[in-house]
Amino acid sequence: MTAPLKTEHGINFSIAHAGAWQDLAQHVFRHAAMGDVRGKLFLKEPLQLTGMEISLGTIPAGRGTPFTHRHRENEEVYIFVKGRGQFQVDDKILEVREGTVVRVACAGVRAWRNNSSEPLHYIVIQAKSGTLANGTITDGAVVSEKVSWSD
Ligand code: ZN
């Protein structure tokens, strides 16, 4: 049973409340070939994303992805927010833990596992490779509107 994801949309925003990391397993992603994947929440549709896909994931202690995959057009960034594990890209094994960020190019064959005794929580961002024209603060523009909570 997939827990309902609370969302709200405004003219210039969307917000979703996924719940606490330890409860992420309540979210189930239905994959056409693999069936139900517990603890994986894709946010493209709930947040109406147009330039990236973001997902939240959790893997229980001692478990891992049962497959490897690569991407056609999107590079991926995995941001590990809690726990420890291992991440494989091609024939390289990377140790990951809270605070580790891994970027994988489209062609990289990847898999990951939680080889610890605590849950492993992570965020995945996918975006089309080679399309980022501006980064950091170069795309931002300070405007004159006041912050609502300022005096
Ligand atoms: Zn992927």
Condensed summary:
The protein has one helix and twelve strands.
Structure write-up:
- This protein has 151 residues and is mainly β.
- It has a domain at 40-130: Jelly Rolls.
- It has 1 helix and 12 strands, in the order βββββαβββββββ.
- It has one helix at 44-47; strands at residues 6-9, 14-17, 28-31, 35-38, 40-42, 53-59, 74-82, 84-89, 92-97, 101-104, 110-113, 120-128.
- The strands form 4 sheets. The protein has a 5-stranded antiparallel sheet with strand order 5-6-12-7-10. Strands 9-8-11 form a 3-stranded antiparallel sheet, with no helix packed on it. Strands 1-2 form a two-stranded antiparallel sheet.
- It binds zinc ion.
- Zinc ion is lined by residues 69, 71, 76.
